[in-house]
């Protein structure tokens, strides 16, 4: 046990101002600087003190900025630092599983240094032959989300027709590549020409379209899927879901991962074509990645070789510096990010 009391350093933080109705703005967060002792307090059994390296911007975080109760995750606390997934280096530990110098990923604070007491959310990083930021992307929650949502919920088969919305995002880009590796026909939608090019040229999708240029989404889907859709990986909701329901095949599967088009709306849009679930016997299921954490080792065994062999590529959009975190988070809902949005707090 070290006898020193730990160095006291300044700690830049991103503070959540207050619950947000309507559209999330950068001004709903602010930057402040406090101080922190780089030592786990005596009374904090199992606590871990970390230096944050990379933070994840995820659409679900928007929902934590409302005052709700009884959901799968608690709301953020006004006046406190934002919390989310990150990659960090352990500086001090009272936990038997983590020692100084270890790298971890899990729930941490939007700040330079964090004292983590909810250590059950942490995973130790063993393989460092890949970029550390991958552990909040392809090797973290988005990766496992893509894996579980595609393989476990959709039971895909070779040759099936797969459609993915928000296809260039953190999850969508992986679902498309998993589907191609399985031998499926894959089309994605995204919100800009650059993203469409990325889907076709970098991620190997069979085709892709810019939904903002389509006046009639039903007609667009009929163009790309003349024989209909077997699997829809749902990331956006709203008008896209309505159009997809018209184009699903008999015994099709819809994996509902998220509905990003609805998160900033006070009144969510209705869906009109749900009756198509009945005659077509469509299976539509929502899921949370937390239910599949037991599959994480199995997922890593599958995906790490693919990454190292170059069979799967992953695109990140990295914002440099904690002060740029609010803009990076709000940018998710304006489609500003290309690929997985990451904030680099420190590259050591």
Automatic annotation (TrEMBL):
Region forming the signal peptide: none
Keyword terms, alphabetized: Oxidoreductase
Taxonomic path: Eukaryota, Viridiplantae, Streptophyta, Embryophyta, Tracheophyta
A GO molecular-function descriptor: 2-alkenal reductase [NAD(P)H] activity
Pfam families: ADH_N_2 (PF16884), ADH_zinc_N (PF00107)
Species name: Populus tomentosa (Chinese white poplar)
Domain Enoyl reductase (ER): from-to ranges: 32-343
This protein's name: Enoyl reductase (ER) domain-containing protein
């Amino acid at each position: 046990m070290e006898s020193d009391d730990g160095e006291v350093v300044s700690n830049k933080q991103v503070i959540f101002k207050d619950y947000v109705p309507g559209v999330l703005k950068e001004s709903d967060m602010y930057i402040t600087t406090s101080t922190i002792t780089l030592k786990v307090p005596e009374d904090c059994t199992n606590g871990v003190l970390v230096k944050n390296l990379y933070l994840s911007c995820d659409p679900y975080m928007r929902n934590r900025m409302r005052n709700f109760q009884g959901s799968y995750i608690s709301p953020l606390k006004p006046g406190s630092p934002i919390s989310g997934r990150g990659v960090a280096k352990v500086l001090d530990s009272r936990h038997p599983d983590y020692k100084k110098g270890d790298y971890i990923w899990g729930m941490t604070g939007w700040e330079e240094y964090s004292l983590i007491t909810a250590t059950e959310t942490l995973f130790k990083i063993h393989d460092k032959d890949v970029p550390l930021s991958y552990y909040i992307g392809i090797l973290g929650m988005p990766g496992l989300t893509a894996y579980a949502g595609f393989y476990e919920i959709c039971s895909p088969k070779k040759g099936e027709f797969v459609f993915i919305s928000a296809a260039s995002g953190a999850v969508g880009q992986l679902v498309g590549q998993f589907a191609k590796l399985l031998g499926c026909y894959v089309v994605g939608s995204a919100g800009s020409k650059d993203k469409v090019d990325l889907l076709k040229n970098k991620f190997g999708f069979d085709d892709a379209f810019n939904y903002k240029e389509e006046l009639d989404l039903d007609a667009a889907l009929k163009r790309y899927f003349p024989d209909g859709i077997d699997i829809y990986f749902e990331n956006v909701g709203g008008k896209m879901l309505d159009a997809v329901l018209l184009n699903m095949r008999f015994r099709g599967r819809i994996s509902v991962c998220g509905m990003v088009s609805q998160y900033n709306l006070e009144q969510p849009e209705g869906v009109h074509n749900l009756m198509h679930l009945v005659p077509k016997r469509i299976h539509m299921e929502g899921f949370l990645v937390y239910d599949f954490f037991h599959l994480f080792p199995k997922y890593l065994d599958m995906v790490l070789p693919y990454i190292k062999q170059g069979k799967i590529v992953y695109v990140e959009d990295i914002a440099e510096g904690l002060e740029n975190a609010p803009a990076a988070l709000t940018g998710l809902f304006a489609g500003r990010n290309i690929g997985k949005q990451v904030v680099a707090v420190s590259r050591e």
